[in-house]
């Protein structure tokens, strides 16, 4: 019998680790490289917007980190004149990128990949003096693992938001790749990602504040521990009491299909950006209603009833189809009926309306909504049946919608103005455009530290 026949099969985490450490930047197609640059620009712009508009969560994260570290540390905080230790800087940068809930999401898993990969890649890349190509490669690989290993978990017996169990795999993947871990060490790091999985779906207001930031921080720690000799069970993923059984239940993971999918049809090409807060699952029905409002000139007083038909997998995600009451702004942000009311009231989503939690017109429209759940539909499917007070009925359905990405210079000039001087914004955009040629990504990070006219921090 040959030695190959006697070989012990690799476990799931070992096979994923082999891909993570063998994937090469030169094999990534140009479109995926450009898309990754755009993802970086998008999240950096959001971070700057959070600073400029004093977003409360960002202020809170910065205050706690500065208090705990007393101004110590060498890692860049995007758009700020301060520094922090590595893991804390990733924590703050992630919180900044989460500002106002405008990040990106990948379907069908429903994971927010940018939040748990980009802050880790930029912050750790700066510490390690990684090249721009290495950082781009790490982000692409992180999106691959998240989108193709990640599964929809809201419809499980014990539901979770998908980024809760899977998010740490993205952070650990990026960190393991940039740290240059061996396959064995990367397998251990993936074990730490499985044990980092946290969070419950309880609470219509969403995950706890700073959840994504904790994922980034813990992912970095797991990778460093693996590098220094920590241990994790090689069957952490598929074992009898492992990650898959614990978090996915009856969901089948075809490891052969998964491995074959990695490194082709790059997942980062399919991420969706948000133009307004709340779950991106609501984008399709919101845009369907927007079209109806504009084409039929519908207004709040015209509507007698709105029937909303959604896939059965969304039943547990009660916040997204809640008809109220809305005790906090975040409850209204999550609610499709509330946002449909905003469209009927103004013809568009006017941000100040999200705070009008007791507006009788908005609440009245929300109460006119009836949600039904259908089997066998894709996760983004929606059908709206709008009945008017004069007896007309309009029916519209869809399952796909994405926004045309804004050019990087448009996003940065809009969101970073007032945070960074114009010359620094131009410098960042120029460096980003040739990121794959930068020998040290720290140069890109340094362009995001505010300086005065004399170049002083």
Q: How would you portray this structure in words?
A:
A 4-stranded mixed β-sheet has the order 6-5-7-8. The chain has a two-stranded antiparallel sheet with strand order 1-2. The protein is globular. The protein has 19 helices and 8 strands. The termini are far apart. The longest helix is centred in the first third of the chain and has 23 residues, at 30-52. It folds into 2 domains: 11-273, 2-methylcitrate dehydratase PrpD; 280-398, 60s Ribosomal Protein L30, Chain: A (2-Layer Sandwich). By secondary structure, the protein is an alpha+beta fold. Helix 6 (113-128) runs parallel beside helix 8 (163-179).
Keywords:
457 residues, alpha+beta, 2-methylcitrate dehydratase PrpD, 60s Ribosomal Protein L30, Chain: A, 2 domains, 4-stranded mixed beta sheet, two-stranded antiparallel sheet, 19 helices, 49% helix, 8% strand
């Amino acid at each position: 019998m040959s030695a190959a026949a006697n070989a012990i099969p690799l476990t799931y985490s070992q096979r994923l680790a082999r891909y993570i450490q063998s994937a090469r930047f030169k094999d990534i197609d140009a479109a995926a490289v450009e898309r990754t640059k755009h993802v970086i620009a998008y999240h950096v712009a959001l971070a700057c917007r959070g600073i400029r508009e004093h977003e409360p969560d960002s202020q809170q994260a910065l205050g706690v980190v500065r208090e705990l570290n007393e101004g110590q540390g060498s890692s860049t905080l995007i758009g700020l004149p301060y520094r922090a230790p590595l893991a804390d800087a990733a924590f703050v940068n992630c919180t900044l990128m989460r500002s106002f809930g405008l990040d990106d999401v990948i379907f069908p898993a429903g994971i927010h990949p940018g939040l748990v990969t980009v802050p880790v890649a930029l912050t750790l890349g700066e510490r390690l003096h990684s090249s721009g190509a290495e950082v781009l490669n790490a982000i692409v690989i992180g999106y691959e693992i998240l989108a193709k290993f990640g599964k929809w978990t809201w419809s499980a017996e014990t539901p979770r938001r998908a980024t809760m169990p899977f998010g740490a795999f993205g952070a650990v993947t990026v960190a393991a790749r940039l740290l240059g871990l061996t396959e064995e060490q990367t397998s251990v790091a993936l074990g730490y990602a499985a044990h980092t999985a946290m969070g419950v779906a309880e609470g219509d207001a969403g995950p706890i504040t700073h959840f994504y930031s904790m994922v980034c921080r813990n992912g970095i720690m797991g990778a460093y521990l693996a590098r220094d000799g920590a241990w994790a069970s090689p069957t952490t993923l598929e074992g009898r009491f492992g990650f898959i059984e614990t978090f996915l239940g009856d969901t089948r993971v075809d490891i052969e299909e998964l491995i074959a999918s990695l490194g082709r049809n790059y997942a980062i090409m399919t991420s969706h950006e948000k133009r307004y807060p709340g779950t991106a699952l609501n984008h399709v029905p919101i845009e369907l209603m927007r079209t109806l409002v504009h084409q039929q000139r519908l207004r709040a007083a015209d509507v007698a009833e709105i029937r909303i038909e959604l896939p059965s997998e969304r039943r547990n995600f009660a916040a997204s189809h809640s008809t109220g009451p809305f005790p906090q702004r975040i409850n209204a942000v999550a609610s499709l009926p509330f946002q449909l009311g905003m469209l009927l009231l103004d013809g568009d989503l006017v941000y100040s309306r999200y705070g009008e939690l007791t507006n009788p017109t908005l609440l009245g429209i929300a109460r006119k909504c009836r949600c039904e759940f259908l089997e066998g539909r894709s996760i983004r499917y929606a059908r709206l049946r709008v009945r008017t007070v004069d007896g007309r009925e309009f029916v519209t359905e869809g399952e796909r919608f994405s926004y045309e990405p804004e050019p990087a210079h448009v996003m940065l000039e809009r969101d970073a103005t007032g945070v960074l001087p114009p010359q620094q914004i131009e410098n960042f955009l120029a460096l980003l455009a040739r990121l794959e040629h930068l020998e040290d990504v720290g140069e890109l990070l340094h362009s995001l530290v505010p300086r005065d006219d004399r170049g002083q921090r």
